[in-house]
Amino acid sequence: MTLRERLFHAALFELLAIIFSVIGLMLLTEHSVSSLSGSMIAVAFIAMVWNMAFNAAFDRLVPGKRENRGWLLRIGHVAAFEGGLLLFTVPVMAWILQVSLWQAFILDIGVTLFITLYALIFNYCYDHSRAYLIRKGHYQPVTAY
């Protein structure tokens, strides 16, 4: 994927993730919508930067057509991505929500479990939609950067 497509992929993923996460946390916690939105926007920004770096490295380590990746590889990809992301996001959530690191970890684990399932579904749909558009001639991918 090109840098432009990586940015589109990451931005679309994070926008939907923010919306779904804030709604879920709003229903499950007593935090205000504004603090939840602020924490999820910060987490999404961190995740977007991590997404760009992690996926560029992953695509170099696992070349080939993305739509041909099996479920086991997809699960490993998401687990490695989300595990690395926790290292960056727990302190941020603790600071914004004014909770302990343990409480932030528990909240972040809940978000991570949801996002893990969401990421599997989103990336499967994205990869197959992209492949379909390429096959139909509606999209011409440029050689990756």
Automatic annotation (TrEMBL):
UniProt name for this protein: Membrane protein
Q: Which Pfam families match?
A: BTP
Any idea which UniProt keywords this protein has? Answer: Membrane, Transmembrane, Transmembrane helix
* Organism per entry: Photobacterium ganghwense
Transmembrane region positions?
Answer: 7-28, 40-58, 79-98, 104-126
Q: Does the keyword Transmembrane apply?
A: yes
Highest taxon of the source?
Bacteria
Segments forming domain Chlorhexidine efflux transporter? 1-63, 69-130
Q: Which InterPro entries match?
A: BTP_bacteria, PACE
